[in-house]
Design brief:
By secondary structure, the chain is mainly alpha-helical. It has helices at about 20-35, 35-55, 60-85, 95-110, 115-140, 145-165, 175-180, 185-205, 205-215, 220-225, 230-255, 265-275, 290-310, 310-340. It has a single domain, classed as ABC transporter involved in vitamin B12 uptake, BtuC.
Length: about 350
Amino acid sequence: MPGDKVDSLPTGKAQIPGAESHGLARRAGLFLLHSREASIALAAIILIIYFGSTAAAFLSPGNIANLAEYAATTAIIAAGEVMVIICGEVDLSAGNVYALSPFVMYFAHQAGAPFVLAILLGLLAAAAVGLINGFITVVLEVPSFITTLGTLYLINGFTLTISNGYPVQPNGSPFIINFFGGTPISQISWAIGITLLFQFILNKTRWGLHTIATGGNLLGAAEIGIKVGKIKIGNFIICSCLGGLAGILDTFRISSIDPLAGGTDIMFMAIASSVIGGTLLTGGSGTVIGAFLGAAVLGILKNGFTLIGVSAFTFDMILGAAILATMIINVRLSRLRAAGGKR
């Protein structure tokens, strides 16, 4: 009615009870949706809290050092696998290069080469394996799964032949030993440095952008002038070199070179770390930091289960289920991100 006094409604947004917390939860959910690293980091924190409360020795300095060494080795190889997988390929031979490079280094040093040069020759041998993998895959058009499966057995046989199947001991100076992985701090420092370097390369350099484009759309990348063959061969070389470096670092850590070390176990753990960390096996998408966190999660699981008395068979079951679940989630999240980007 005219003249009646009507209370005016507030012009601002009404404060609905619980709206602020709901909005915060929504923002947190969106952050986890768009950040692969955040979700895997959260899983790692939850696992640390769980095993820290159920196993008294889990957070002891000695156990943390062992965990760091294990995760560091896997993370270094995983960084190379991420680069190969993103461009649409896979390298099954990196775990055997892990055993080959230290022997090349050892024999070079025995022949009179200084240790630094011997290490470089070990990495050069690893690079040669990567070049062979890339050449056969790209030029001869053999699927990388078959190519690297073949070189896996070739390298394993070659390493056993030159070593006669016996382990040897390197004799480096204290500086060489400590710098190249002889201490837990040294090894994890290498892993963190390599992770940050290749995450930067992947996201901030032309090489990384071309790697993503090659795996995302091979034909389209070639049509806009990207040398997709060069990208793939280069990433195979990177992966093999990182596999060889991981083997050399472990050599100085354990003061022994074993021809049976590494192999398929560490290779599959590196690939699993990549997948759990958010790298799609279909190519075109991935994160090196995620692979590092994936290696940490696998290390925490394996170490924690051992401390609380869970068998290795159970760990394999959980690992397989984790890979399947992660791939399903990653595929779904990728579709959600793509749908959100079209709006």
